[in-house]
Amino acid sequence: CWAFKGHQGQVVIRLPARVYLTAITVQHITKDASPSGTVNSAPKDIAVFVSLLGTSVDADREEETFLGMFSYNVEKDPIQTFPLKNMLLPRAFSQVKIIVKSNWGNPWYTCIYRVKVHGKMENQKASTNGQD
């Protein structure tokens, strides 16, 4: 897992191309796969932002756009996909910021096993055959 200290943390994911974003998938392990038999290190409340850095006239000024707040549920499937509420943004982005606001009770660390970013690559927007 990618672990960070405490119950809060963040990661910025740089995408290989500019993407029109549609959803985020978060994955953690199951209780059965966990060496401790618990999944209290799983993220619980997650916020998603995109950065507008370099897209404005003032390229040094960083602006962020909020795309949604989601709750990862450890009682459901370990792979959970969350549609982004602000899918109609008229531009593609090259990085996504994931902020974990809380976990399921572990006071020492929080683990993320996998994050997937879904959308259409900028050069595939007009295509109906593009893959997520």
UniProtKB/TrEMBL annotation:
MF terms (GO), sorted A to Z: protein-membrane adaptor activity
Xref: Gene3D superfamilies: Galactose-binding domain-like
Keywords for the protein's UniProt record, in alphabetical order: Membrane, Transmembrane, Transmembrane helix
Domain SUN: 1-122
InterPro entries: Galactose-bd-like_sf (IPR008979), SUN1-5 (IPR045119), SUN_dom (IPR012919)
Species of origin: Oxylabes madagascariensis (white-throated Oxylabes)
Intracellular or extracellular location(s): Nucleus inner membrane
Domain of life: Eukaryota
The encoding gene: Spag4
Protein name: SPAG4 protein
GO cellular component, as recorded: meiotic nuclear membrane microtubule tethering complex; nuclear inner membrane
Principal location: nucleus
A Pfam family assignment: Sad1_UNC
